[in-house]
């Protein structure tokens, strides 16, 4: 069933008032009429089966038929810090990362980022990012839309990392050192509800200064398999492995 | 270091004769000259550190300096059978699936495939597919290039599946039945070297006839996390989970 994320301010007891871009989708793309059923998600995580009771070009009103008791969120809270990559790779990370359960995304300017974040285009870009994660949340039936933060420097990212219970970064060289800890041993240490920050470098990986800085600030280096992954594949591997570990491994 | 897959027929004791498209990459893209070092992979899985000793527009000759004792292949052999999806999604599955260690790909015509495989364009398409998996193999430092099979019908796929030790298909509805077996319990049953076939439906998923047919031919239905994944994301989740299970979980 089609699903829409509606801000909490648009809910009034058992009525939902839908406005903005969703109107086009409801009336033109899906061609819904009064009496049709949709699922509405509040941005606080609740979801309800609703029936459309009023429909026009300005707004759609839907009535709650039944509150849904569903939760498909990952049992741990995962944020992806992605070194700003070239082209539209960040779009792919946002779309697929949302499908795979990320709770947030933090683009950051890494030393080897070829692309420099353009503040003049920032507003437009962040608007596109919001659209991508909202649509991917609806498509994948998420309870919550992930947050996309403003791009930050690596120093700001390290400040931000103080809010997390565990911090890791993708760095395949690390697997060659003696006291290497596997990704599995890290995940075994995380309890349900805890916050994990996963940091992925841009195309050229992290510089050695960045590696040292991350390590001295409590980030563990992990390997994501022995093959060399492109930057946009690394976060997807990490999220799939986390889902497998916490949601699909029990026998 | 840059890596090239060179057919076994181009190896002569400790010399490798490189021809075709790789010449452009070596001379124009990488601007290599005599004395530069590259890694050459034979399509039988061996790899060697080589030095370029002759270079012109027709061919490049490289000499083996050292045979490399590296193996980054997944410990189990995984083939992805992908219901033919829309647009360029199959390209993404091939590229990312190669990075993540798939040993082969089998496109198949599923009942809900919107796109019908056009036999007139088949040669051109398969050529592009070969290029994608070759380049992704080089980039991810694979020992072997995955094979992309000619598209087949679901009945041909079921015939093909007789060559596999374990067969699964992505079908989230299955998680709701009582005797559901998790993805983890399936992977626990597979030994190193065994062959696993993973079958993913196109955008609309499998029809109920296809589900019944797969089940009655020994395919196990599995869930890839509780969120709804797009068709092109499913294979990537499965491969990342397999890598995690067999390569990164041990503590």
From TrEMBL, chains A, B:
CDD domains to which the protein is assigned, alphabetical: RsmE-like
Domain Ribosomal RNA small subunit methyltransferase E PUA-like: 18-65
EC number(s) recorded for this UniProt protein: 2.1.1.193
Domain of life assignment: Bacteria
Reaction(s) catalysed (UniProt annotation): uridine(1498) in 16S rRNA + S-adenosyl-L-methionine = N(3)-methyluridine(1498) in 16S rRNA + S-adenosyl-L-homocysteine + H(+)
Cellular localisation: Cytoplasm
Name of a matching Pfam family: PUA_4
The keyword rRNA processing is annotated on this UniProt entry: yes
InterPro entries named among the record's database cross-references: Alpha/beta_knot_MTases, PUA-like_sf, RsmE, RsmE_MTase_dom, RsmE_PUA-like, tRNA_m1G_MTases_N
GO cellular component, one term: cytoplasm
Alphabetical UniProt keywords: Cytoplasm, Methyltransferase, rRNA processing, S-adenosyl-L-methionine, Transferase
UniProt GO MF annotations: rRNA (uridine-N3-)-methyltransferase activity
Ribosomal RNA small subunit methyltransferase E methyltransferase domain location: 73-243
UniProt keyword Hydrolase present: no
GO biological process: rRNA base methylation
Function summary: Specifically methylates the N3 position of the uracil ring of uridine 1498 (m3U1498) in 16S rRNA. Acts on the fully assembled 30S ribosomal subunit.
NCBIfam families per record: PRK11713.1-4, PRK11713.1-5, RsmE family RNA methyltransferase
Recorded family membership: Belongs to the RNA methyltransferase RsmE family.
PANTHER family: 16S RRNA (URACIL(1498)-N(3))-METHYLTRANSFERASE, RIBOSOMAL RNA SMALL SUBUNIT METHYLTRANSFERASE E
The protein's name: Ribosomal RNA small subunit methyltransferase E
